[in-house]
Amino acid sequence: MLTLQHWLSFYEKNYVCVGRVIGRFYGEDGLPTPALTQVEATITRGLEANKLELQEKQTFPPCNAEWSSARGSRLWCSQKSSWNGSLALAPGSLKHACYRLTLQFLR
To answer: Origin, by domain of life (predicted)?
Structure first.
């Protein structure tokens, strides 16, 4: 939905509106339909979620990860991250897979 909102913002900024298409989002009277109201509410929630995520990343920067066939996976975090340290796990190991899932869950 946010991609659609970015697209719409671009067109609203660079083009002149000459009308509306009657259908799912605008009725014959040119007024928004309930479907458009629902989409706008979803976009608003998405923008708020992005704002909160950005604030969280500033407070707790994400950790860094790299992988190479020679060294496997490595994870390290800054002093401001919610977890501080480094970790090396063999690629394909069960611990490696569980740790990756844990990191995804904690985000």
So the answer is: Eukaryota
- Among candidates 48, 49, 98, which has minimal Cα distance to 73? 98
**In a 10 Å sphere around its CB, with 0-12 CB exposed, 13-18 middle and 19+ buried, how is residue 21 labelled?**
exposed
Please list, in sequence order, all residues whose beta carbon lies within 8 angstroms of the beta carbon of residue 63, skipping any fewer than 6 positions away.
Answer: 75, 76, 77, 78, 81, 83, 103
Handedness of CA 67, 73, 74, 77 (dihedral sign): positive
Q: Splitting the chain (107 residues) into consecutive groups of 10 residues, what average pLDDT does each group show?
A: 88 90 94 95 93 85 84 78 52 51 51
Tokens of 20: 């509306």
